[in-house]
Prior knowledge:
By secondary structure, this protein is an alpha/beta fold. It has a single domain (about 5-160), classed as Nucleotidyltransferase, domain 5 (2-Layer Sandwich). Helices cover about 50% and strands about 25% of the residues.
Amino acid sequence: MKSRVLGFDPGLANTGWGVIEADASRFSLVAYGSISTPSDQPVGERLDSIFSKSSEIIKKYKPDFAGIESLYFAKNVTSAIPVAQARGILLLSLFREGINAREYTPQQIKQAITGSGRAEKQQIQEMIRILLGLSEVPRPDHSADALGAAVCCYNSHLLQERGL
C-alpha cells in the first residue's frame, strides 16, 4: 500500500523538510526544501514563519504520517534550545493538521538509512540519493536529513504493520 511520508529536520535558522512516497521497499521523491529564517528577526517571528510554512507544506502534500528528528544534546546545550523551539512548532503544525508524528534520534535515522548508527553525514546523503533514485544529493543538508527522517519513519511504520 502506497504511503506519503513527510520528514522534518528541525532548526531555527534552517528547517529541512522532505516528502516521499513509499510502497513496500520502493521510494520516490515528491518534494523537498528548507524553511529559512533570518537571524536578525525576533525569535517569535521566526517561529511564526516556521509554523506558517510547515502548515502550508502539510496542507499541500497531505502526508499520511511524519517523521521528525528528536532533540539531542551535543556539547553545547544552549544551541539545543532554538532547535527545541522549532521542533515544538513543527510538532504543533503536524498536530493541528491531524498528522501522526513519530520521533527518531539521529542514530535511529542513520541506522535505518545505512545500517549503521554511526554513519557519516556523506554516507547518509549518498544513500538517500540512491534510495530515491536522484542524480545528485539533495541540498541543503537539512533537506537530505529530513528525507532521511521520512525514510526512517516509513521503515518503522512498515515494521509495526508487520508486527516486528
